[in-house]
Amino acid sequence: MVKPEFTHIRDNRFSKWHRQINDQYYMYDIDNVIMWFLAKDQAQPLALIEEKSYQKKEIDLNDYQFQCLRTLAAPLQLPLFLLISHYNEDKNYFSFYTVAANQHAKDFFASLGQKDRRYMTEMDYINFESHLRKCKPDLTKVDKACILLDEFKLPKIINLK
User: Fold this and answer.
1) Contact in structure between 48 and 76 (CB atoms under 8 Å)
2) Cα separation of 117 and 109, whole Å?
């Protein structure tokens, strides 16, 4: 099982401080690197996922974040995905919209016979990660495998090819 969040808070003090240094000192956090642990001391990255809020007005797939992530993903031939998440507060579940943000991600979805952008339920997302890991989904530690879906309003996605 994945270890619980260590501090239960997200400390943004360094990020805020770093933003004050200089306009040219670009930095951002990488949201998700899907890993496959080969052994206790060996891990292999399988995919990069940039998560964005559904509340954003627009997402540019050619901004510096996606350019940087594509540069990181290219030599390792990793798929890069945009993941837009929406949490339903009333019913306590997530819905997702996933976009293939590079050719490796498009090829991955094509190998599953799926479109390169689509809404996902929690169950769909668990299956998505399981396919990335080339393993069967483990639902034993999941409270429920939610099949509910909100097709929430998406931000405008710019430079989507």
Assistant:
1) no
2) 9
- How does pLDDT run across 19-30, given as a tens digit for each residue? 776 776 766 677
Residue with tokens 């998406």: 154
Q: Give the model confidence (pLDDT) of 79-112 as tens digits.
A: 999 999 888 888 888 889 999 999 999 999 999 9
Burial 12-39 (b: 16+ CB within 10 A, else e): eeeeeeeeeeeeeeeeeeeeeebeeeee
| Torsion 62-29-68-40 (CA) sign | negative
What's the pTM? 0.81
| Neighbouring C-beta atoms of residue 43, cutoff 10 Å | 12
Pairwise CA distance, residues 93 & 16, whole Å? 31
Tell me which residue of 81, 87, 92 sits closest to 132, measured CA to CA: 81
